[in-house]
Amino acid sequence: MVNNRQRCGWVPENDAQYLQYHDVEWGVPLHDDLKLFEMLILEGQQAGLSWRTILYKRQNFRKAFDYFNPERIARYDESKIESLMSDPTIIRNRLKINSVIQNAKSFLAVKMEFGTFNSYIWKFVGGKPVLNRWENHDEIPANTIISDEMSRNLSERGFKFTGTTICYSFMQAVGMVNDHVTSCFRYGEISRLCDH
């Protein structure tokens, strides 16, 4: 407990950046296409790693990937890939770097079809957040039927590093589900946000 506030059990209390992420960002319903794209990419980069690793490299990712501009990323060529592979400030994994480029192309195709990525991705929860009521962190699933369906659909559209666990983590981060535990001070705040 920091500042006399009860938080979710996964938040390290001595980590200011992580606290900020939990207290301000995590679980807030997000509808901005570029921010949704950024979170989808960052969740994919996390595969096999800790979220803390990604969080601490987030600014580096933004600079390296043109602030997650999908039009630019979709045009990356082999020389750009090589320069990213030699950038020690990001995750230098060729499969993950290639997936960012592929995901930018798929993202643009979804926008073309649906008008916005937001309208496509939020349809999986009927356009409004799922308000869960978990009392402790152990109850929270790693994936759900909805994340299974999202993962399948994204995969059919060519997205990479979007397995069901990554999709559920993405849903939690962008507020498609409220997975703060009920004792966390953010649970009520986000539930009220979801009512508007």
Architecture overview:
The protein is mainly alpha-helical and 196 residues long. It has a single domain (16-194), classed as Endonuclease III, domain 1. The chain is 55% helix and 2% strand. It is globular and about 50 Å long. The two termini are 29 Å apart.
**CATH class call:** Mainly Alpha
CATH topology: Endonuclease III, domain 1
What amount of the residues lies in strands? under 5%
- By CATH, the superfamily comes out as Hypothetical protein, domain 2
Biggest sheet, spatial arrangement of strands:
1-2
Unreliable residue runs: none
Secondary-structure class? mainly alpha
**How many E strands?**
2
Q: Quick one: overall form? A: globular
SSE string, helix = H, strand = E?
HHHHHHHEHHEH
CATH architecture label:
Orthogonal Bundle
Distance between the termini: 29 Å
Number of domains: 1
Number of DSSP helical runs:
10
Give the biggest sheet: 2 strands, parallel
Could you give the topology of this structure?
Elements: H1 16-25, H2 33-46, H3 51-64, H4 70-73, H5 78-85, H6 94-114, H7 117-121, E1 130-131, H8 145-156, H9 164-173, E2 177-178, H10 185-194
Parallel strand pairs: 1-2
Helix pairs in contact: 2-3, 2-6, 2-9, 8-9
